[in-house]
Amino acid sequence: MIELLGAPAVRRFLLVLSVIAVLLGLTTPAAAAGAAAGAAGCVPAAAATYRHSFDGAAGTATITANRPLCAGPAQTFSLVSYTTGAYGSAAGQFIYETARDTITAADRSVTLKVAVPSCYTQVEAIFGSSYQTESTTTAALNGSAELGVPGSRSQGPQAWYSGGSTACTARPAATVTNACDGTFTVLLSNSGGTPAVFLTGSRRIRVHSGATTTLTPARGSTVTVRDSSFTTYVLSWRAPAQGCAGAPAASPTAPVPPSPTATATGSAGPATTSAGASPAPTTSSSAYESPAPLFSTSPPGPATAFSPTGSTGGMGTSSIIAIILGLLMIGTGAAAVTWLIRTNRRLA
After folding, report:
1. Residue 162 lies in a domain
2. Which terminal residue of the chain, N or C, has fewer Cβ atoms less than 10 Å from its own Cβ?
3. End-to-end CA separation in angstroms for the chain
4. What domain range includes position 339?
5. Domain end (from 257, 286, 306)
């Protein structure tokens, strides 16, 4: 072919191929996605940056995307408050309340608010919906997930607050009452001066000073309860101590001793319904929050540093556009080669 075209035509042919190669390089799926996003004035969630305000004492945070997010994956943020010991002590932090919301293509800004305990407390705003529910160390609970730390994709003050001037004096307890028909109830109580928090299954229950709330487990089940004094109860039915001739008797439960290094992770959810308040009607006697958030009382794992929500599946619009542009470039190159051959023949 080179002999047929001649040297000038070969140079022109190579120049055309170079231009085509450059154009094809610019139209890879990633480049096309970036170009499409730029043209639309939006940015993918994985590359988005944010700005935030944070008031730990008030338990509020507002996060705003610097540019609108493109349709598809979104970004969730959480705000978490804890009860804790005096600043610098290793008395431990335990989850108190959480809130979460998600920035999407339709919602560019979110505002989060949580209750802040009146005793020693810690409050953090983080990327994602995975966070530490407790810790008995002095280490930062949520690490690089925290907003405003070096390297964070959200610009603003470090979203961490430590405050309060009095000790947290909650005195949580869980007591089982066994019935002769094989059922049992669990009474969660708090005889201390500040609210106590219980984690059980998928629920977080906050009980005010002097208040109680009752759990009614399914027959034959075992219930694990972890409370803010770092005590774990494993509760199930036992035959009443006084036999079944009379009324069901309350049987004492032996709590598992506190673990000096216990930690756990959870997922943020709606605000807690507190016993002692007026909870919305439920199908049981428990003043639960919504069961939507999932909390883990199994052995601990590290908090997720960055947990964007949403995922993409299949071929997106940007990929299809990239393929079409690539095919057009190939077709243009073929037409250019044909034109050069024909031109060379006419000149010959």
Report:
1. no
2. C
3. 14
4. 2-40+315-347
5. 257
